[in-house]
């Protein structure tokens, strides 16, 4: 089968561009097309629940609405993410913003109260609002937990659900997850501004976060699912939590990952998904696609093309 040269025309749809990618071989464009087709198949399969993981600054990088759309339309069952993305979702819910085009002199940025994430920026004033608002939410949750049988103990998943119930922003990932019964897990939650404020709050309040408690609920979700597909944006802890949660059932049935990391170091972030089969984190015969590139550029393209084919 020959490689077709990519043909571009004016006003073509994203799905049409993806068809051009599909015929171009198995290099970058071909992998992107395979990932988009796999995403369609996963979403259209009524027997498949989809676990999505996000590592890296994907909310600051512009994917907040896309993740929200997946949740709102019940296209994912579980979201596993870093504490940083939780923090930045809430920062926007509390009126903060992420900025661009402010320059790269980091000492001057520091003096001006601005933090930099590559070429995305945040203001310390927004984090001050975040800190005051999240403490109010912790106080509400703490009073609620103190009054029930849990003796002040709460799992991360339930904590995030309770936070989502108290957010008014209709675009908040946490709020949408609460409204649409999508479970959010953040195994590295403490390693974030959210986690720092939580630690400070627990110094003089009775609120104990039980990370192990998440595994009871997550394992139930795995065993209740006929098939599981995975969307993994970036690597790290969220990717491993997604794959490892399926270990006891023989692994995921389908999966796509987008990563910038390389496999030579042996890190999980750069490992091709085929490697997961050796650990029973992906099943024999599972449909797997690894795309090397920037998730903030490639996943919107993959999802936009898939929308024309989703039932």
UniProtKB/TrEMBL annotation:
Enzyme Commission (EC) number: 2.5.1.46
Pfam families linked to this entry: DS (PF01916)
Keywords, in A-Z order: Transferase
Classification via InterPro entries: Deoxyhypusine_synthase, Deoxyhypusine_synthase_sf, DHS-like_NAD/FAD-binding_dom
Signal peptide coordinates: none
GO cellular component, one term: cytoplasm
Annotated Gene3D superfamilies: Deoxyhypusine synthase
Family: Belongs to the deoxyhypusine synthase family.
The name this protein goes by in its record: Deoxyhypusine synthase Dys
Organism, as annotated: Methanobrevibacter ruminantium (strain ATCC 35063 / DSM 1093 / JCM 13430 / OCM 146 / M1) (Methanobacterium ruminantium)
High-level lineage: Archaea, Methanobacteriati, Methanobacteriota, Methanomada group, Methanobacteria
Gene symbol of the encoding locus: dys
């Amino acid at each position: 089968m020959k490689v077709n040269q990519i043909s571009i025309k004016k006003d073509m749809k994203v799905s049409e561009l993806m068809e051009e990618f599909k015929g171009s071989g198995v290099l970058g464009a071909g992998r992107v097309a395979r990932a988009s087709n796999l995403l369609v198949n996963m979403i259209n399969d009524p027997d498949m629940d989809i676990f999505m993981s996000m590592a890296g600054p994907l909310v600051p990088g512009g994917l907040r609405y896309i993740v929200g759309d997946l949740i709102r339309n019940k296209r994912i069952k579980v979201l596993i993410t870093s504490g940083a993305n939780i923090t930045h979702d809430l920062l926007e819910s509390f009126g903060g913003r992420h900025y661009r085009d402010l320059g790269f002199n980091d000492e001057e940025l520091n003096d001006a109260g601005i933090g930099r994430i590559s070429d995305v920026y945040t203001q310390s004033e927004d984090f001050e609002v975040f800190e005051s608002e999240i403490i109010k939410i912790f106080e509400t949750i703490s009073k609620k937990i103190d009054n029930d049988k849990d003796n002040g103990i709460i799992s991360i998943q339930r904590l995030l659900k309770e936070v989502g119930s108290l957010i008014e922003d209709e675009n908040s990932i946490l709020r949408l997850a609460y409204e649409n019964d999508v479970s959010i897990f953040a195994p590295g939650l403490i390693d974030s501004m959210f986690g720092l404020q939580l630690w400070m709050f627990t110094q003089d309040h009775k609120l104990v976060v039980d990370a192990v408690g998440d595994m009871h609920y997550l394992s139930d979700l795995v065993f209740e699912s006929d098939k599981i597909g995975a969307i993994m944006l970036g690597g790290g802890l969220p990717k491993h939590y997604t794959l490892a949660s399926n270990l006891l059932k023989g692994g995921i049935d389908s999966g796509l990952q987008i990563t910038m990391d390389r496999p030579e170091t042996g890190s999980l972030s750069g490992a091709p998904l085929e490697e997961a089969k050796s650990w029973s984190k992906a099943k024999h015969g599972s449909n797997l696609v690894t795309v090397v590139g920037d998730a903030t550029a490639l996943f919107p393209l993959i999802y936009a093309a898939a929308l024309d084919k989703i039932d």
